[in-house]
Design brief:
This protein has about 260 residues and is an all-alpha fold. It contains 13 helices and no strands. It is globular. This is DnaJ like chaperone protein.
């Protein structure tokens, strides 16, 4: 059995189109080369919402957005993490180690080692960010895309700060993923220190009334609640809890600041 057979068992929509081409090349480079026939079969192993999903080569017939599975999210993460890490022209060992440590915490050591091996091969490729991101946008649900964005900022911040080139690349990805400016700025504010960050996280301004603050908090709790990504599996639900805690911290900060 291929060392990366676990991918085919969990991925539905991701292994088609530009993402499928990237993963296929990475698998071959990693030593898991397939004949063209076997690779085609491999790319169709995943299921999504009870049916096979194909697009990218001959288009796709999509009546509704398929549910994102753990493998879909994982492959999307591997590719976009590579884009962000290379944004400033330097592959920082701290960022690579962060990716590896996150994989270990999410997937366990054995699966993480395989994922990181694949990631290193992906990292050697020139990736068309627009094509990959648009494929993800078409097929991935909104809560999962928000979680993906949060992880990309985590990677950028892993060496101590998010540099301008990284932020611009993440902003570009967010645009392709159809993440609006309010959602983007809310997640971005979790990784910067400024006097109004707590308000940005709740998607309000300092001029908001106390009642508006409370309403904004309730809205953000619903948006970022970890249960929104429970379909990705416990490994990614835990990652969503970090984002959720930032919302709680922001609200507590504003409460203390205002004496609410």
């Amino acid at each position: 059995m291929s060392g990366f057979k676990w991918i085919g068992a969990t991925i539905g929509w991701a292994l088609g189109g530009p993402i499928g081409a990237i993963i296929g090349l990475a698998l071959g480079s990693a030593g898991d080369a397939f004949s063209s026939g076997k690779l085609g079969s491999f790319l169709n192993e995943g299921e999504s919402t009870g049916r096979r999903t194909r697009y990218g080569t001959g288009g796709y017939n999509q009546q509704q957005r398929p549910q994102t599975h753990s493998g879909d999210f994982e492959v999307s993460l591997l590719i976009l993490a590579s884009v962000v890490i290379k944004a400033d022209g330097v592959t920082d060992p701290k960022e690579l180690e962060y990716v590896r440590s996150q994989f270990v915490s999410m997937y366990g050591k054995e699966r993480a080692n395989k994922a990181f091996r694949l990631f290193k091969e992906i990292n050697k490729q020139t990736i068309n960010t627009r094509q990959v991101s648009l494929q993800i946008q078409r097929m991935m649900d909104h809560p999962s895309r928000l979680q993906l964005l949060h992880f990309l900022f985590n990677i950028a911040k892993s060496d101590g700060m998010v540099v301008d080139e990284e932020e611009r690349q993440i902003a570009s990805i967010a645009g392709y993923l159809n993440i609006n400016s309010r959602d983007y700025n809310s997640i971005k504010a979790m990784f910067y220190n400024s006097s109004d960050n707590a308000y940005k996280i709740l998607e309000i301004t300092k001029a908001a009334s106390n009642d508006e603050v409370k309403r904004a908090y309730r809205k953000m709790v619903k948006k970022y609640h970890p249960d929104k990504v429970e379909h990705l599996g416990e490994e990614h639900k835990k990652g969503a809890e970090t984002k959720f805690k930032e919302v709680q911290k922001a609200y507590e900060y504003i409460q203390k600041e205002r004496g609410m």
